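Q: How would the structure tokens look for this protein?
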Amino acid sequence: MEIRSYILGAPFVFGTCYVILYRGILYPSRGKGKKMEILGARLKILRNEAGKTQQGMADFLGCQVRHYQLIEAGGSNLPIPKLMKVADYFGVSVDYLLGRTENREINR
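A: Here is the predicted structure in token form.
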């Protein structure tokens, strides 16, 4: 299955489940799907590699620790600006965080 999202009324393929972009936030439209699980798993790996706590990441993102825990568990997602902030902090691409590539490097 592929992800379809609508930005400015035009559909585009995003991955393996359906997603809707609304006010800068990606929302799964058919269950949480594997994309949010991939995001959470990669955030946890990167956080552990950097020696950060969940509380530290929640403070960095300006959210409650419980919300960050939900993100890592695949039960919630990040607004695009915060997703970009996390990618910049860890020096990885947003595509890597979302599971679209295995390459951590940023292509500029």
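The radius of gyration is 13 Å.

Residues 4-98 form a domain with the 434 Repressor (Amino-terminal Domain) fold (CATH 1.10.260.40).

Upvote if useful.
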